[in-house]
From TrEMBL:
Record-annotated membrane-spanning stretches: 31-51, 57-74
Matching InterPro entries: YcxB-like_C (IPR025588)
Organism placement in taxonomy: Bacteria, Pseudomonadati, Bacteroidota, Sphingobacteriia, Sphingobacteriales
UniProt-recorded name of the protein: YcxB-like C-terminal domain-containing protein
Keywords: Membrane, Transmembrane, Transmembrane helix
Residue intervals of the YcxB-like C-terminal domain: 103-159
Length: 180
C-alpha cells in the first residue's frame, strides 16, 4: 500500500501526547511532582504549627488539599502546552515536507526530501489504533505515527492487521483515547 502524507502540527502534538501517555517514566514523574507539592505543603503546615501560626498552617493545609485534588488537571494543561511548543518547533521544519509511505508485509518505507527510512516489520512491537491515528511502536521504543487522514483507512487497517498476524503483534484499539 502506498500513500502520500503531509503532517500537521496537530499530528505532531498528538504523537507527543500519545507517547507520553504510554510512558511509565512520564507517568511516574507527573505523580512525583504532585506528591512533592503536597509534601511541601504538609512540611509548611508542620512548621507553622510549631511556630504557633495557625493562619499559615491552615493555609498550607488547604493548599495541600487543593494540590491533591486539582493539580492533575492543571498538570495536564501544563504538559500539553509544553508538548505543543515542541510540536510547533518541529512543525516549522516539516511544514511543506511530503512523506511517501510504502507499507508492505516485510517493511514500512518512508521517503521525503529529508531522507529515506526503511523499517522491517519484524521490528514492530505493537500497533495501537486511536480515533485519528495508528501508532506503531518499535522495539527500539520509537513510535511511527500514521494519521488516518493521509491514508485509505480500510487499506491501511487491513495492511496493518496482515503485518500483525504475520509477526504475532498485538493490535490494540483505543478509539476513545485522549490526553489525560
Amino acid at each position: 500500500m502506498k500513500a502520500r502524507v503531509t503532517f500537521t502540527a496537530e499530528d505532531l502534538l498528538n504523537n507527543y501526547l500519545f507517547v507520553a501517555s504510554k510512558s511509565d517514566l512520564a507517568t511516574r514523574r507527573r505523580l512525583k511532582v504532585k506528591l512533592l507539592l503536597v509534601a511541601g505543603c504538609l512540611i509548611g503546615a508542620a512548621g507553622s504549627f510549631i511556630a504557633h501560626d495557625s493562619y499559615t498552617m491552615w493555609g498550607f493545609i488547604i493548599a495541600g488539599i487543593l494540590f491533591l485534588l486539582f493539580y492533575q488537571f492543571l498538570q495536564k494543561v501544563i504538559y500539553k502546552q509544553n508538548y505543543k511548543k515542541h510540536a510547533e518547533d518541529r512543525f516549522k521544519a516539516l511544514k511543506d515536507v511530503v512523506f511517501d509511505y510504502d507499507i508492505t508485509n516485510e517493511s514500512i518505507s518512508t521517503k521525503s526530501s529529508i531522507g529515506d527510512v526503511v523499517i522491517k516489520t519484524s521490528q514492530i512491537e505493537s500497533i495501537t489504533e486511536t480515533g485519528s491515528y495508528f501508532f506503531i511502536k518499535l522495539k527500539s521504543q520509537d513510535t511511527i505515527t500514521l494519521p488516518k487522514h493521509g491514508f485509505d483507512y480500510n487499506l491501511l487497517s487491513a495492511q496493518l492487521n496482515n503485518i500483525a498476524a504475520a509477526n504475532s503483534i498485538a493490535v490494540t484499539e483505543e478509539l476513545n483515547w485522549r490526553w489525560k
